[in-house]
Write a structure and sequence with these properties.
Layout lengths: L1 E6 L4 E10 L2 E11 L6 H19 L3 E5 L7 H21 L3 E4 L1 H9 L6 H11 L9 H41 L8
Parallel strand pairs: 1-4, 4-5
Antiparallel strand pairs: 1-2, 2-3
Length: 187
């Protein structure tokens, strides 16, 4: 599986691509897209959208993972993250690439074993899990790689759960069909 993680932001938007090879995650590319703070917001968003489109087209990921925007103490930051997140979702949608979202706590739990892990801990865990020579910096880059790692860890479990649910649903339908129109017997 080839996953591209996106840590959304207008000033700094982290990206990190990870491929599963022989059961091990391997970092393919990571970085940060930046936009000049001095530019008008609409210009910055246009630049970010263009960069995301180019990145998605160049890498052709099987799935894009974007950090879910939940809550920010600073409303301005929340708007900025939401705008960047929307651009990433739209760019993936244009190419027909599936998108999955995880909360920051889900990502921290998946890579660090604790949902309240700090930036430094996430950077060190990403370094360790991907066998990188040094910790990925800035944190936006590490967070994007962590998003990809989170999905690689979660996807098999989600697939198994979906298959189990389908079997359960089929069994229920079969049991109901075998009963005919009789209501269940109450004891």
């Amino acid at each position: 599986m080839f996953v591209l993680g996106i840590d959304p932001g207008v000033s700094r938007c982290g990206y990190g691509a990870v491929r599963q090879e022989g059961g091990q995650p391997v970092a393919v590319v990571s970085g940060v897209i930046t936009t000049p703070v001095s530019d008008a917001l609409e210009l910055r968003l246009a630049v970010l959208l263009k960069e995301l489109r180019q990145l998605f087209a160049r890498l052709a990921p099987e799935v894009v993972v974007v950090e879910r925007v939940l809550f920010q103490a600073n409303a301005r930051t929340a708007m900025s993250v939401g705008q960047a997140s929307g651009l990433a979702l739209a760019a993936a949608g244009e190419l027909g690439v599936p998108v999955v979202q995880y909360s920051p706590n889900e990502v921290k739990h998946a890579v660090g074993g604790w949902g309240n892990a700090g930036k430094e801990q996430v950077q060190r865990m990403v370094q360790s899990l991907l066998d990188l020579p040094e910790k990925p910096t800035p944190p936006d880059r590490a967070d994007a790689l962590a998003l990809a790692l989170c999905h690689l860890a979660s996807a098999p479990l989600e697939k198994a759960a979906a298959a189990a649910q389908q079997k359960l649903d089929a069994a229920i339908i079969s049991a109901r069909a075998g009963r005919g129109s009789k209501p269940p017997v109450m004891l």
